[in-house]
Amino acid sequence: MIKEIEHEAEIQNKRTVKRQSKARFLSDRIARYLVFIDGMVSFLILLAIAVFTAQEGLPLFSQVNIMSFLFSTEWRPTQGEFGILPMIIGSIYVTLLALFIAVPLGVACAIFLSEVAPLAVQRYFRPLVQLLVGIPSVVYGLVGMVIIVPFIREFGGSGYSVLAAAIVLMAMILPTIISISEDSLRAVPSAYKQGALALGATHWQTIWHLLIPVARSGIISAVIRGMGRAVGETMAMIMVIGNSVVIPLSPLSSARTLTGNIAVEIQYASGLHRNALFATGIVLFVLIIVLNSLAMLVLKRGEVVVER
Amino acid sequence: MVFKRKNKLFLIPALALLILTLTLSSCIYPDSGIPPIISVPASQLSGTITEAGSTTVQPLAEKLAAQFTKNNPKVTITIQGGGTAVGITSANDGTVDIGAASRELTASDPPLVKWLLARDGITVIVHPSNPLTGLTKTQVRDIFSGKITNWKDVGGADKKIDVVSREEGSGTRTAFQDLVMGKDASGKDINIVNSAIFQSSNGALKQVVLGDAGSIGYLSLGYLDSSVKALSIDGIVPTEANSKSGTYPIVRPLYFLTKSQPTGLVKAFINFCQSTEVQKIIADEGYVSVK
């Protein structure tokens, strides 16, 4: 009986949708075309960037084997050696370390803001978090260079390290993770929470066993956003990570990220060196696509649907 | 939102204050403060010149341009950085009138007309707290190639050496590589160690050395000031006089480059930059005059 009613509703829905697409008023049609063009423009800009990067970067592979580009550890462009493995590992290491610190901290803060904090605290904290998102990355880099690097120097090495970069990155992605996670926690229907509490669960049990799993897709998308920003961060990275061309074996070791590789050398590069830097850009593109796809996969598998 | 204001009228005086501040600030800032050492009657030269290239040449080019435009008020000169390679390609493409380079041109560079502006020494710098006053060229080479890793091996304290260098392609680095690192017995280049800290400008490198007591780096002589310590190489102190006489060994040329023989305004500017009167400006900036 329910199935039949649902089927009927679906047919009615389709009819309405069909009717809407034959928009009768000219103003409607113009508006739809304009919006369509706007959307296409954004997509085309992205495509143009991808095409331009590929155009400048692919010529490298006529001279350099792609396997040796990706897996060789020697980066000496002025002598014809192009190996970016240390940079790939540097980028991944820094991002993972930053996420490792930022995700628990960020989600905990989001839980605090949405469930635990008194109203007065919430009213001041939320704009503060929004403010942090807007601070330019070079300012984070400056603070990192002047305060964090000398602090880490006490523990060994020169202070310019993966750890310093991860701390700076953590400060940058934390506000993003907090605000999106908090929004998705708030979006959980209050009926769920009330039901759990009514059944005798404690507040923490409700948060841990109900709210977080239901808000899981929102939290994961917050993490994806943070990860995207982390992989793409350039300015702050150059200032605190040391830019050495070595595979970082400890968090105190200096390293170089893919983004840093491009930014540090692009000013002076010409010829094949320039092509190699654009090829590094291609690798960055691919890395971000891979990371995002992986995260989407996790999202799909973990989706919790509560039956009504 | 904590801030609630229904009355939007406060915007008007706020906006007026902002505009007032902006216009006043442009009057308050003094000009670059160059004493007019060359007083010639204001000439009728007019037009624009664009220059781009080496960051080592940039501060010098800015001072020369400022002096030239003081004497020729109708002329506008734009000075940009971007690095030696950018200077070479821009001059060759015609994107700028003059390119700046801080190294010798090689066979792989396009054929451009060179105008020698000055020479620049490269000094090896350490943190002011470092007890050493000098090193030999071999010691410097071994430190930068990673052979020597502790200050105690060269007569300093027991502390790890943190090598700081410029990035690949920098004119300063290329000159340092050619003049100090050199080649080994089999003819292969001796490279700066991979685990060094790399920064992308003279200024940034200086900042790193200033912050780390165990660090060593190299700097254009024009950027040297009393905040860092300059080491003598093989007993010779890096001064302008020593660089000019050739006693100090780590010196490279600073060039203006043009695509072909310049005419008119560009020619006048280049003649001005190579004239004897501007040598004082060059020396004041810390570079080595050529006349």
- Beta percentage of chain A is under 5%
Strand order of the largest sheet of chain A: 1-2
Q: Could you tell me the mean pLDDT of chain A?
A: 88
**Based on helices, strands and strand pairing, what is the structural class of chain A?**
mainly alpha
Number of strands of chain B: 10
Largest sheet of chain B: 10 strands, mixed
Q: How many beta strands in the DSSP annotation of chain A?
A: 2
Helicity of chain A, as a percent range: over 70%
Fourth-tier CATH superfamily name of the largest domain in chain A: MetI-like
Whole-number count of domains of chain A: 2
Overall mean confidence score, pLDDT of chain B: 84
Number of helices of chain B: 9
Oligomer state equals heterodimer
Radius of gyration of chain A: 24 Å
Q: What is the top-level CATH class of the largest domain in chain B?
A: Alpha Beta
Level-2 CATH architecture of the largest domain in chain A? Orthogonal Bundle
Low-confidence regions of chain A: none
